[in-house]
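User: Predict the complex with 4-nitrophenyl phosphate.
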Amino acid sequence: MKILMVCLGNICRSPLAEGILRKKTGMENTRIDSAGTGGWHAGEHPDKRAIETGKQFGVDISKLVARQFSVHDFDEFDRIFVMDRDNLRDVLSLARHDDDKRKVDLLLNADQPGSNRSVPDPYYGGDDGFVRVFKMIDEACTAIVKQIHQNS
Ligand code: 4NP
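Assistant: Here is the predicted structure with 4-nitrophenyl phosphate placed in the model:
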């Protein structure tokens, strides 16, 4: 199973989602990556606050490097989880056909099916926003791992 996590900058939410899901899946046969719909932070490590929050919960994302989502990601990945509705719109705008579109869903629909809720963007907020975001992503990733086990 190949899973891509997507947010806007690829320096806050999606690197946390990548790190959290990697930790939960361990050595299983999965490939997990993350990307941003925007390219402004490409080549950078995650935001310091995201790194610190990950560290607090035992998830090391300090070595990850941001990159921009591209249409080729539809070929590379089985599932593409987006953090918010803007990401959803931007990723779907690059989809070439229904098979591409079917791979894409809001991350929080993994543990709250049909809720269509967004993971809030913590970039402009305080540190507590990052902890809240971490917990939301963590619960969704637990549900994803459960689904992987059910389907294998
Ligand atoms: P992310 O957060 O999408 O969770 O990585 C953001 C990072 C950077 C910006 C916005 C959101 N920015 O505007 O630079």
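The mean pLDDT is 96.
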